[in-house]
């Protein structure tokens, strides 16, 4: 075969292959186009995707529930009366009077009202002898313990033994919780690990605040 004929046959084969593939591609595009033009059944109500507005509402609801759960893990101020939420006006006088800045305002999402609370796991109540937060309350939302016959009860201390230094060392290395507890005979030791007497524990959080472990080896469990 002559060189000229060889090139002619080669180009002919290439072009024939190209045209064949082009025809196949054209047919495939036609099929896709026809499929797109075919009307599809409308999705049922159950499978309807939420609109942006619905997503926003659902998101707000989730945040509101989360805030409510957070609010339930806090403690009321010292001397809180049984009618604390109906008597408290949110004046914040107790917050300003606390010498240790333990109290802080918390907004209830459902009503938008503001009430003072404390979190003894974050900052301890020092159980002041004169209770300035109680004496400054103008609405008797906080009552002196002498009048109510109650005692401070923010929760109960519980040891998290796996975080305790004594558990890690196997020795009686630390007794800081025993030293800092203001209530006598509340902290005892079983072996080298602390045990808290729930009947006398006030849940003030001084043991948590002074605990040198990280994470903390003590946690205040809130009363329900």
TrEMBL record:
UniProt cross-references to SUPFAM superfamilies, sorted A to Z: 4Fe-4S ferredoxins (SSF54862)
Coiled coil residues, start to end: none
Keyword GTP-binding: no
Record bears the keyword Iron-sulfur: yes
Top-level division of the source organism's lineage: Bacteria
Keyword terms of this UniProt record: Iron, Iron-sulfur, Metal-binding
Molecular function terms from GO: iron-sulfur cluster binding; metal ion binding
Residue ranges occupied by any 4Fe-4S ferredoxin-type domain in the UniProt entry: 78-108, 114-147, 192-223
A Pfam family matched in the record: Fer4
Region (Disordered): 32-75
Residues annotated as transmembrane: none
UniProt name for this protein: 4Fe-4S dicluster domain protein
UniProt organism field: Leptospira vanthielii serovar Holland str. Waz Holland = ATCC 700522
């Amino acid at each position: 075969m002559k060189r000229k004929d060889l090139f002619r046959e080669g180009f002919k084969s290439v072009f024939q292959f190209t045209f064949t593939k082009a025809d196949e591609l054209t047919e495939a595009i036609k099929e896709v186009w026809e499929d797109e033009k075919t009307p599809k059944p409308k999705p049922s109500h159950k499978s309807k995707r939420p609109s942006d507005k619905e997503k926003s509402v659902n998101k707000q609801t989730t945040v509101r529930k989360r805030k409510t759960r957070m609010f339930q893990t806090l403690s009321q101020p010292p001397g809180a009366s049984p009618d604390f939420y109906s008597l408290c006006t949110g004046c914040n006088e107790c917050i300003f009077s606390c010498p240790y800045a333990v109290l802080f305002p918390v907004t209830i999402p459902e009503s938008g009202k503001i009430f003072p609370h404390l979190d003894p796991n974050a900052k301890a109540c020092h159980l002041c002898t004169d209770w300035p937060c109680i004496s400054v309350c103008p609405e008797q939302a906080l009552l002196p313990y002498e009048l109510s016959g109650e005692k401070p009860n923010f929760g109960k201390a519980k040891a998290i033994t796996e975080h305790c230094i004594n558990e890690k060392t196997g020795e009686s290395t630390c007794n800081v919780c025993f030293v800092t507890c203001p209530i006598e005979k509340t902290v005892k030791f079983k072996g080298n690990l602390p045990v808290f007497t729930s009947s006398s524990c006030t849940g003030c959080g001084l043991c948590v605040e002074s605990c040198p472990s990280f994470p903390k080896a003590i946690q205040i469990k809130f009363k329900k």
